[in-house]
Amino acid sequence: MTKRLIGLTGGIATGKSTVANYLHSAYNLPILDADVYAKDAVSIGSSTLAQIATRYGKEILLADGNLNRQKLGEIVFKESEERNWLESVIHPYVRNCFSQAINESSANTLVLVIPLLFEVGLENLVSEIWVVYCSPAQQQQRLIQRNHLNSEQATARINSQLPIAEKVAKADIVLDNSFTLESLLKQVDVAINKNIHITKLPI
Ligand SMILES: CC(C)(COP(=O)(O)OP(=O)(O)OC[C@H]1O[C@@H](n2cnc3c(N)ncnc32)[C@H](O)[C@@H]1O)[C@@H](O)C(=O)NCCC(=O)NCCS
Ligand SMILES: Nc1ncnc2c1ncn2[C@@H]1O[C@H](COP(=O)(O)OP(=O)(O)OP(=O)(O)O)[C@@H](O)[C@H]1O
């Protein structure tokens, strides 16, 4: 049987992790998360972390040898050339993690959380695409609150991604997270019971 692979995406801080956590706790679905793989790619001792330290100097590391993520974020969300370079060294690892996890899993349904699904062109990796939406103003407010960023830093992060309206236009399912958590989770309950993946299969 073909696996149901749900690609969960959206803008930064629109609510992807909130949806993924619910799908895991309420439906017991395995979650494969690009952000987790991307963090693993730069763990201490990795060749990627060494490449990053060569490019930006030892100052990009914390005292314990781990990557100073805040500092690297300051660089790459301001300069698209640096972001492209970082993506070129991290994304192959992330893709490989997804392929391996999908192949090894015996579950019929898997949730793939991929913030940059459209930007990186991973549409074909999944069988259906869910986009979590909230307005750019709410995105900005939630990002500032959660990550303790100033408004300029939050705007830089939001602008480094495809506009949320364009993501919505490409979605199979849109989860509107402009309201309460309860309203979001009700939409997830409806979405998980739809059989889009079956209707999308080639005849
Ligand atoms: C720059 C880094 C070190 C900042 O780390 P930080 O802990 O502050 O953020 P975190 O990794 O938790 O990401 C939070 C969100 O930022 C957004 N984001 C991350 N990387 C990017 C990027 N290259 N372009 C646009 N948005 C991004 C995503 O929405 C993500 O969910 C980190 O985001 C990173 O290594 N990015 C490059 C790898 C990447 O592209 N990851 C995205 C998933 S593959
Ligand atoms: N309906 C809501 N109302 C208010 N706050 C919310 C709502 N949904 C999520 N949030 C808050 O917004 C923030 C972003 O949510 P979440 O971490 O799920 O987003 P994300 O898309 O996974 O973010 P990232 O792209 O950074 O990984 C969190 O602090 C979360 O608690």
From TrEMBL:
**Main subcellular localization, coarse class?**
cytoplasm
Keyword ATP-binding among UniProt keywords: yes
Task: State the top-level EC class.
Answer: transferase
Q: Name one GO cellular component term.
A: cytoplasm
Top-level taxon in the UniProt lineage: Bacteria
Catalysed conversion reaction? 3'-dephospho-CoA + ATP = ADP + CoA + H(+)
Localization recorded for this chain is:
Cytoplasm
Q: What's the EC number here?
A: 2.7.1.24
UniProt keywords, alphabetically: ATP-binding, Coenzyme A biosynthesis, Cytoplasm, Kinase, Nucleotide-binding, Transferase
Q: Where along this sequence does the record place binding of ATP?
A: A13, T14, G15, K16, S17, T18
CDD domains to which the protein is assigned, alphabetical: DPCK
Q: NCBIfam families in the record, alphabetically?
A: dephospho-CoA kinase (TIGR00152)
Q: What does this protein do?
A: Catalyzes the phosphorylation of the 3'-hydroxyl group of dephosphocoenzyme A to form coenzyme A.
Protein name per the record = Dephospho-CoA kinase
